[in-house]
């Protein structure tokens, strides 16, 4: 799933490609992806792209006062094409293509979503805050106003909730997803199950530094990369996420996993849980 660093880099890359170009047409291949009807998607025709920005994990293409907002969800992506086909895409359950943004010179974007579970979302709005997911976003963790004191207040307000869930909840902190919550908790040497309000001052400062450093470094590495390079860059720098069974790059212990109904988390027992494996209830049920 694209998270804050990848969406930030996508916005930067697409800003350079789209700005000052006219949108000739937005062609839908998966009609269920479009979540709005007013303004109609045809209202984007003839608009000029002014900017491409990010709100949490939402990508915002600002075109003559209208906004084409994308949430790429778990398996969505944006692919730049120097030349697009002249025939519109046909709806197909077998094709990953969800929509196509055609510019005046026939270059443009293919918006795709892999897999059968379709959750990619597109919105055409007059104001980004008209998108419910943007209107309810928490603070962005890389802005200047995301201070140590703000993090302290958030964690105290969330009480005994597990720190992993708090960090990835978009209404609490914007942009951190499953992968980077694993990564920054590993950097902070903190259990993903630790209660949010149980951190002492040293732990709070360590977590705050990890948030800023892990995300900031990922943004720096991604800046200037083309969209086609971002997935590989992200994967090559992950310490624990998606690396179950592999050695921890810090201590050499085996990275372990806890599975849930539709997701999983990865962690290092030595670095994060005092050497004790966390209970994996789904695995326990399978072993009975």
Kindly list the characteristics that best describe this protein.
single chain, 288 residues, alpha+beta, N-terminal domain of MutM-like DNA repair proteins, Helicase, Ruva Protein, domain 3, 4-stranded antiparallel β-sheet, 10 strands, elongated, disordered C terminus, zinc
Please outline the helices and strands.
Elements: H1 4-18, E1 23-28, E2 49-55, E3 58-63, E4 66-71, E5 76-81, E6 97-103, E7 108-113, E8 121-125, H2 132-135, H3 148-158, H4 163-168, H5 178-187, H6 201-222, H7 227-236, E9 256-259, E10 264-267, H8 269-272, H9 281-287
Antiparallel strand pairs: 1-6, 2-3, 3-4, 4-8, 5-7, 6-7, 9-10
Helix pairs in contact: 1-6, 1-7, 5-6
Catalytic activity: Hydrolysis of DNA containing ring-opened 7-methylguanine residues, releasing 2,6-diamino-4-hydroxy-5-(N-methyl)formamidopyrimidine
GO molecular function, one term: damaged DNA binding
Cofactor: Zn(2+)
